[in-house]
């Protein structure tokens, strides 16, 4: 094992944020790297995802979730793509394999083989696997069952999920796909490159007013990443039998007056009842059983040029402490990924 590194670098939370997190709340630390045990795998990370749910994990209010909270002194974690450097003989992994895992925000990871998922050698765009779109795919194909003729609204359409699921909704037969975003520049990209027929720009005019113009007869399907005013408007625009999937709650998570674990919204419950609207809350790990199906379809769409997975890339772990702030500020299109140098 002498040829393997004995130290590595990782990003740690160094202070509990007072309001929205800042770069000063994080630091890159040099730490010892233990040699892998007989049943363990050593991976050198190539890239990791910066995800808005991290704000909830560091906010101190999240009492129950599928992921643990991060407290001052703890290393940050999240989805990552890496290359196997060492693996047990006779195990499922070999040196040189690409794998996905949840030990991001660090240069190396050591864990049992079961913590890593091998990437198929012919997968057309491995970085696309960091985009957290499995939940969106499950929401479209299972919770809302989008199909021919549906009018679909995707809030937060310029984010990691929204930039993918708008096109997926179209591929699944939606007649019209509408998005929301925070700038006219992002709206232009979404309509020109990512399958959206219309995009509502937050702050230009009330979302409800823009939605009434974009979908005068209402919407059949909602994939909501935001909540707040946008969820209120979507409920008001629901058609008979509409199906809603709530995937995120950015309006609360990114509110400086909150700590990332609440997102109140005003909804017309009477309309939900009389329009027979179904509402599904989609937890992050809800559709893990669909991963093989999603990966097969994703690979096919990527190869055919029918789908792209956009990202904003930051180079080097030294830029990671400011990455969450950049995401919160909206200076991102698609997934925000930190790529690591060798």
From TrEMBL:
**Key words, A-Z:** Oxidoreductase
Q: Which residues form the Enoyl reductase (ER) domain?
A: 19-338
Source organism per entry reads Kitasatospora misakiensis
Q: Which InterPro entries match?
A: ADH-like_C, ADH_N_2, ER, GroES-like_sf, MDR_fam, NAD(P)-bd_dom_sf
Can the keyword Oxidoreductase be found in this entry's annotation?
Answer: yes
User: What is the taxonomic lineage of the source species?
Assistant: Bacteria, Bacillati, Actinomycetota, Actinomycetes, Kitasatosporales
Query: What stretches pass through the bilayer?
Result: none
Question: Does the UniProt entry include the keyword Metal-binding?
Answer: no
Q: What is this protein called?
A: MDR family NADP-dependent oxidoreductase
The coiled-coil segments of this chain are none
Q: Which Pfam families match?
A: ADH_N_2, ADH_zinc_N
């Amino acid at each position: 094992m002498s040829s393997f590194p004995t130290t590595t670098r990782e990003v740690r939370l160094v202070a509990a944020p007072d309001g929205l997190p800042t770069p000063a709340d994080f630091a890159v630390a040099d730490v010892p790297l233990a040699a892998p045990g007989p049943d363990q795998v050593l991976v050198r990370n190539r890239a990791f995802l910066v995800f808005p749910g991290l704000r909830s994990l560091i906010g101190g209010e999240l009492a129950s979730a599928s992921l643990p909270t991060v407290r001052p002194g703890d290393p940050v974690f999240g989805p990552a793509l890496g290359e196997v450097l060492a693996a047990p003989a006779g195990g499922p992994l070999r040196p040189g394999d690409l794998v996905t895992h949840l030990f991001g925000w660090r240069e190396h990871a050591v864990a049992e083989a079961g913590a890593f998922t091998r990437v198929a050698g012919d997968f057309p765009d491995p970085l696309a696997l960091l985009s957290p779109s499995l939940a969106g795919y499950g929401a479209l194909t299972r919770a809302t069952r989008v199909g021919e003729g549906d009018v679909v609204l995707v809030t937060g359409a310029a984010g990691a999920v929204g930039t993918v699921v708008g096109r997926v909704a179209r591929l699944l037969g939606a007649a019209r796909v509408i998005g929301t975003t925070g700038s006219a520049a992002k709206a232009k990209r979404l309509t020109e490159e990512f399958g959206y027929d219309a995009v509502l720009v937050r702050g230009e005019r009330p979302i409800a007013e823009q939605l009434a113009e974009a979908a005068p007869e209402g919407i059949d399907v909602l994939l909501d990443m935001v909540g707040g005013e946008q969820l209120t408007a979507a409920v008001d625009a629901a058609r008979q039998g509409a199906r809603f999937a709530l995937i995120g709650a950015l309006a609360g998570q990114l509110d400086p007056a909150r700590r990332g674990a609440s997102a109140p919204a005003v909804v017309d419950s009477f309309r939900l009842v009389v329009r027979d609207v179904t509402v599904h809350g989609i937890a992050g790990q809800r559709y893990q059983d669909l991963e093989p199906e999603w990966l097969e379809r994703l690979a096919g769409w990527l190869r055919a040029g029918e789908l792209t997975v956009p990202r904003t890339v930051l180079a080097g772990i030294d830029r990671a402490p400011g990455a969450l702030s950049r995401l919160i500020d909206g200076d991102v299109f698609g997934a925000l990924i930190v790529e690591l140098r060798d």
